[in-house]
Every structure is written in structure tokens, then in C-alpha cells.
Write a structure and sequence with these properties.
Helix content is 43%, strand content 20%. With 248 residues, the protein is α/β, with parallel strands linked by helices. The protein is globular and about 45 Å long.
Length: 248
Amino acid sequence: MSETSPSPLPRPASLAHDADHGARVSGMFDAIAGRYDLMNTVMTWGQEPRLVRRTVERANVPAAARVLDLATGTGDLALEILKQHPDAHVVAADFAPEMMEVGRTRPNGDRIEWVEADALALPFADGEFDSLTHGYLLRNVANIPAALAEQFRVLRPGGWVAALETSPAPDNLIKPFSSFYMHRIMPRLARLITDRAEAYEYLSSSTRAFHTPEEIAGMLADAGFVNIGHELHMFGTLATHWAMKPLD
């Protein structure tokens, strides 16, 4: 999503960089919107639904909650929230409108409030949400601390955030095989399923260069969160993260 200002003053270079990065990423995801769910299923060897369920479980959604799902894409996490918590009011936000249009047509998509939004400048009030989820968001934003600060702001005290993220392959016996899969196999699968292999080449490279779960935990702590934890999946190449906004 592009950024606008009410004044004619030029934007700082850092904001321009963030907006340019966001526009590129948004365009890539919009281009693969129709095949995104299939690609996620293939690339996680069919484990994506289980990982989505686990992430929602870690969000500790209370009764009759107002829940925000950021980087919602086609709504996997948002729809799982409704499945586990039918009384929740779910707001699904993303800066890729074509992805959300796919989500609107899915079963129960009409029960979700869809909002086009930038994760670095959320259009929501302080403390508006009881829980917050996101999947594969942090590796796609230009400023992770700013994104986490916004999540902290819109959560109520005592609210939880849960996130599913890729992780660089840990240094173990599996690393050569997992690295080969992400660097060589993922783009080839993309060519078979979509005509936008460059998008998955970007996903592969951004995953290899992404922060470790321990580094993400440190960023969550710096943002003010407590009760921080994570669990690894897929031989350490995916992780579920969780954290709570303090009560005071």
C-alpha cells in the first residue's frame, strides 16, 4: 500500500523505502492470489492446515473476542479463528487487495471484515483487539520493529499475538536438504503451478535471509511483549511465535 501525507513536504527516505518495498511485495502477492493456497499446501507438504490451527490456538482468543488477522492473504488464519471461535468478530487486514478478494469468496468469507491496511501504520485504535494473528508477515515488511510496535499498540493489555513465520534452516544434518528444497525445488514447483516463479524465488531468498526464532523473540521483547515463546515445525524451517501484551 502506498503512503500519503496531507502536506506537500517530501517523505523521509526511510518511509519512501518502506512504501516502495511494500508496493513490490503487494504486487507479487496479488499476481499469485488465485494459486497461493495451493502453493502453500504443496510447499509445506500438506502441513499448512495443521500449522494454521496451531497458530490460532496460541493466540488465546477469549470469548466474544475482537481479533485482528494481519497479512491475512486469502484468509486462512482468519477463517480458522472463526472455526475455533464462532462468536469472534474477525478483522482481516492485508495490503494485497487481490488476495483478500479470493478470501471473500471462500466459505464464511462473508462473516469476516476485510480491510486494506499497511502493517506499519494500522488504521485501528489503541487497544482495539483482544487477540492478533499473522502468517508470514514479518519477513515481508521493511521495518519489523515498527510492525511489532503497531501490533503492541492495537492489542488490549493482556491480549496475545500469535504468528506463523518461516525460519532459516538450523545447522544440523537436515540443513543441506532443506536448503536445497527451498533454493532449488520451491521455484520449480512455482513454475509448474503458477506463471510467477519470481514470487517464490523471492520467498525462498527472504526465508534464507530471515531472522532466527531467537532473534524474533528478542524483537518481541524490545516491543514490550512478555511471556514470549516459539515452537519449530518442518525440521526447523517454520516456527509458531507467541507473546502477550502486559496487563499494566
